[in-house]
Amino acid sequence: MTALVVGISHRSAPIALLERVAVDADGACKLIEDVLANPRVSEATVVATCNRLEIYAAVDRFHGSVEDISQRLLEPAEESVEALIPHLYVHYDDGAVSHLFRVAAGLDSMAVGEAQILGQTRDALRLGQEQGSVGPVLNTLFQQALRVGKRAHAETGIDRAAPTLVTAALDRAAGDLAGRRVVVVGAGAMAALSVATVVRRGAGEVVVVNRTPERAERLAAEYAARWAPLAAVDAEIASADVVVACAGAVGVLVSRDAVAAAPGPIALVDLALPHDVDPSVVDLPGVTLVTLADLGDELRGSDVGDEVEAVRAIVTDEVEAFLSARRQASMTPTVVALRSMATGVVESEMERLQRRLPGLDENTRSELLQTLRRVADKLVHQPTIRAKELGDRDAVSYATALAELFALDPEAVDAVTRPLEPRLPGEES
Question: Which amino acids are annotated catalytic?
Answer without folding.
Answer: 50
